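Students often ask what a holo structure prediction actually looks like on paper. The answer is less mysterious than it sounds. You provide the chain, you provide the ligand, and the output is a string of discrete structure tokens encoding the 3D arrangement of the protein together with nicotinamide-adenine-dinucleotide.
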Amino acid sequence: MATKILVTGGTGYIGSHTVVELQNAGYEVVIIDNLSNSNIEVLDGIEAITGRRPDFVKGDVTDMGTLRKLFEEHADIKGIINFAASKAVGESVQKPLLYYRNNLVSLLNLLELMPEFGVKGIVFSSSCTVYGEPDVNPIDETAPYKPATSPYGNTKQISEEIITDFVHAGAPVKSVILRYFNPVGAHPSALIGELPNGVPNNLVPYLTQTAAGIRKELTVFGNDYDTPDGSCVRDFIDVVDLAKAHVTAMHRMLENDSTDPVEIFNIGTGRGLSVLELIDSFQRATGVKVPYKIGARREGDIEKIWAEPTKANTVLGWKAEVPVDDTMRNAWAWQCRLAEKK
Ligand code: NAD
Ligand code: UFG
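The corresponding structure tokens follow.
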């Protein structure tokens, strides 16, 4: 019988791509999502790609009653992947309590119910934001936390600590914490991708919307950083590669008894790419020009960060594979599909 996995936030950007990879790997999936930042039609995309529609519960992970009912109805859930969270850094500064409540209460609820319902493990979505501005690049998992620069970033540090404390207190659960670098792109089918919500803050959705003529021009936030071309450097990780890391993590956690009860992995390519290099890649891959200008630095931006992914490569057996030009082509195909749907 297929192993059943609960995916919270499973209709969201990274969640939907992960559900596809889980189903492709033979797992059975139940999604819970309150649709606060996603759309029910995502299920059609998942079904069209995999031939299978995952079970879906519309509900809030901060609501203990809803969760308890879900676990009673799906008593055979063996693992959880917890994507459900609010993720807009700027908004978290304006509405800190909303972020602390949503991101922390949801995690506490899940952890509290896991032993009662015999759920063995939880994969948690963390972020390279826990490292702040690195002292060295590439950065590995042993680097200490830097003070969080936003309530959002703080929820990721606190969540990692909550999980670690719980497991070290002897709770009969395991956890794999994945620190994502910068997830970008879309499924190559262009049937699922990132849903823009208002004016995008992130680079790639802003870039594709500019290429599509929805935005007049892209502003590159600063070209006077201490980097080869002066623009910021990031580790852009393809969302399908990222999704596959969750499948590997789940398999390791559930099937391998000898692993540490809490493991932390960087999920990145190991390659730093500048903002200007990413724009070049987009133009090369798609043949579409992106009007852009150089603007002032954005407050709070990290100058450069990229992952040391060796632990994920060797211990987890996962490696980023999609070339960045393909990622940009997929991001563009998804943008074109969104335009068609309008
Ligand atoms: P997303 O907003 O697309 O997906 C999150 C999903 O969770 C949405 O569908 C939303 O409706 C749902 N949700 C939010 N709160 C909920 C709640 N209380 N109950 C039920 N559903 C709820 O975001 P994403 O980009 O897919 O991110 C997924 C996870 O990865 C988040 O935890 C995020 O913090 C983390 N992360 C994202 C990035 C990134 O750049 N996208 C980077 C690092 C970490
Ligand atoms: N950028 C521009 N112009 C834009 C948008 C972004 O030049 O219009 C630049 C930024 O200055 C930055 C780079 O593109 O140098 C990447 O910016 P993003 O906003 O796409 O991503 P960040 O690295 O700032 O942050 C992302 C997520 C955070 C998460 C962090 C680490 O937005 O939630 O990665 O995982 F915490």
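The radius of gyration is 19 Å.
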